[in-house]
Amino acid sequence: MYNFKFADIGEGIHEGKILEWKYKKGDKIKEGETLVIVETDKVNAEIPIPVDGIIVELGPDEGEMIEVGDLLATIDEGEEGDDDVEEKETSKKADTSSTDEPEEKEKDTDTDSSSDDDEDEGGVVGKLESSDEVIESSQETKKSSSKSEKILATPVARKMASDLDIDIFQVKGTGEHGRVLKEDIENHKQSDKSSKPSMKAAQIDAPEIKTYEGDKCEKISTLRRSVVRAMTVANQIIPHTTLIDELDVTDLVNFRNDHKEKAANEDVKLTYMAFIIKALTRAIKDYPILNSSFDQANEEIIYRKDINIGIAVDTPDGLIVPNIKNADQMSLFGIANRVEELAKSAKDRKIQLSDLQKGTISITNFGAFDAISGTPIIKHPEVAILGIGKIDKKPVVRDNEIVIRDILPLSLTFDHRIIDGADGGRAMLAFKKYLKDPLLLLMN
Hints:
alpha+beta, CATH 2.40.50.100, Chloramphenicol Acetyltransferase, 7-stranded mixed beta sheet, 9 helices, globular
């Protein structure tokens, strides 16, 4: 029997709701087919079947919650075996080691989360890969001058150690046979910080809310719960300040109108957002602080190597912020296509988890809702977010004459702990310089 459990897929996802079972008890199944769709606070994850066999038992009913580590299905593979997945996997291996540790299958569990963000639309659809891999143990080998040492660790722990730049050989494992678990990595990271002065923001408990006759109470969705947590963290930790400005984009409007038809002939929907993203990447090159994170515990500014620009997308279920990976390396048409793909995918709840990870700065488009401007909230751990308003024709003075021009309202909200007002103002000037002259965006 094969006990298939709901895996830890990262990004703070610890639970989900069973949306739809694709098979029922007694059905024959094949490896790779979708077993169940689970709604998490990030994505609707299609969980693939890990093995061929017959379903003996299924997990919670549709509409019920499931947590990481809970049983999704028990599958009869037609072979005798142990109910424990790890022991079952171990029993399949050839005896190729003389160590006292259980021999386990070597796997390359490193994932490439690189993908390429939006205005009105956007969506490359892909399945979220999830399997028994986090339950199965893995080994890493460390070469020394006299011998080869082995360490047991779950793939999630290995990935976390790599992301946090932690030497996994220095972490004490608390799992079976000394296996390093995700919690061990977290505890190790915390112990490194314990000697440094604490600068945590005060946690405020929300006061109790009374209800009265006739009031209607409605449970929030898993996505809305995620937004609640993110906005609460951002406001508690980051001291926000916002610069509000406006820009004459008449030349940009004319340039886009002149080339919109040519772009359509290339199957490209050329929106203003593509130009805005391109201009922001150029401004970041001049002011890298915009593309950073602040590690308050270690009192360090982390300057991000990649420029992954997130776009806030309004969906029927709530706000999702996918991001364009390495946007600075893409052409204007490439950005425009990726914007449309990601926004559509987000609205259809078919976004890939990798598209939501590793964002470095975000853009939100108030103009899409006919709003002039706004003061957006930074998405932690980013340090800035650019707000875009509605382009309107306005009378302005040019050469002592009143003329009608296309005006774009802008707002730049930034983390005042590491970005001073003057630096924020200079970064805004750089962004405006690039956006007002479209030809600058086409030059290297």
